[in-house]
Design brief:
- With about 325 residues, the chain is α/β, with parallel strands linked by helices.
- It folds into 2 domains: about 70 residues, no CATH class; about 250 residues, Rossmann fold, CATH 3.40.50.1820.
- It has an 8-stranded mixed sheet with strand order 1-2-4-3-5-6-7-8, sandwiched between helices.
- α1 crosses α6 and α5 crosses α6.
- The longest helix is centred in the N-terminal third of the chain and has 37 residues.
- It is globular and about 95 Å long.
- The chain starts with a helix and ends with a helix.
């Protein structure tokens, strides 16, 4: 081989090495930024037309297992031994996300507790783990309700996105959670992160998901890559589960509701809304949504209720929040 050919090969190898190094740095840089965005969401989210809650709601505080103070709103049930609904918000929002449903839950006679997960809203905590330590938050909420209403109180779960996924795992550890209404839960956190890269960044998930999870685990000191509600949902039986998701969900893969439903055991229900986006069912079919939620919880409470003591599922109030902004909040958190 001539000296000129050898020099060309060396130069080519150097250039190829530089390109590979730059590409690796780009992957790591994007992944590190994405991980930081995931574990440090904004705390100030609220609907544009948000209004302060009514004075009938009690501002409450309680601690999770790590000692973080969680802030919430509580409305006790309107009858003795009435059930209480835990309303769990999604990633990047806060308890204001569930304020509209709390209105018609309490109007129907249920107690309700809305609270901010750690590192969201007013609650303590530096990082969110998007479903890992948030399970402890949900279990702390259960303990708080039991402290208020007694150990025999019936507790129902109502979650959006991350909150729905958290409830699946929490209920697998806590039989006191008697039924779950799950709006747009993810099957695994890795799948949700992969979808974000595909939809919002137009980048190949196989390249970016693993390092993003690695960075997130270094930041939080928690195995966030092991957040997998799909592994827990079968254990919820015979407690009833209702899953709802839009077929145009841009945050959680629309296939996730099918995967979770397939793994769940009876009694289970699935409602898929053609063309609806992430947590958008309340916007597309608000009346039917309320009807389905209240009917589901009323059926779940049949062992507790009888005759005149049955939970009133009449739709007594209308929404005053534009629910479409809820889906936009989730999109904003993933598109920064």
């Amino acid at each position: 081989m001539s000296a000129d050919a050898s020099a060309i090969l060396v130069a080519f190898a150097v250039v190829a090495g530089l390109i590979a190094t730059l590409a690796a740095c780009a992957v790591l840089g994007i992944s590190a930024y994405s991980a930081h965005t995931v574990v440090r969401p904004r705390r100030d989210w609220q609907p544009v037309d948000w209004q302060a809650p009514p004075t009938t709601l009690e501002s409450v505080r309680f601690e999770n297992a790590a000692g973080d103070v969680l802030h919430g709103w509580y409305a006790p049930p309107t009858r003795n031994n009435g059930p209480v609904v835990l309303v769990c918000h999604g990633f990047g929002t806060n308890r204001r996300e569930g304020q509209d449903v709390m209105r018609w839950l309490t109007a129907a006679g249920y107690g309700a507790l809305l609270f901010d997960f750690q590192a969201h809203g007013e609650s303590g905590g530096r990082y969110t783990t998007v479903g890992l330590r948030e399970v402890d938050d949900a279990l702390a909420a259960v303990r708080y309700v039991q402290l208020r209403e007694g150990p025999m109180v019936w507790i129902l779960g109502f979650g959006f996105s991350m909150g729905a996924s958290v409830l699946i795992i929490a209920a697998a550890q806590c039989p006191e959670i008697r039924a779950l209404f799950l709006d747009s839960p993810f099957a695994t956190l890795r799948r949700a992160i992969s979808r974000s890269f595909r939809v919002f960044f137009h980048l190949p998930p196989p390249i970016f998901t693993r390092p993003t999870v690695w960075f997130a685990e270094r930041l939080t000191q928690g195995r966030v890559g092991e957040v997998e509600p799909i592994r827990a949902i079968a254990s919820l039986a015979p407690r009833p589960v209702f899953i709802v998701q839009g077929t145009e969900d841009s945050i959680v893969d629309p296939e996730d509701s099918l995967l979770l439903y397939a793994e769940a055991r009876e009694p289970k229900s699935l409602w898929r809304i053609d063309g609806a986006g992430h947590v958008a069912a309340r916007m597309v079919f608000p009346d039917e949504y309320r009807t389905r939620v209240l009917a589901f919880f009323a059926d779940a409470c049949e062992p507790l209720d009888s005759g005149s003591n049955a939970v009133n599922s009449e739709l007594l109030v209308s929404d005053h929040l534009r629910v479409g902004q809820l889906a936009a909040a989730h999109v904003d958190q993933h598109s920064e």
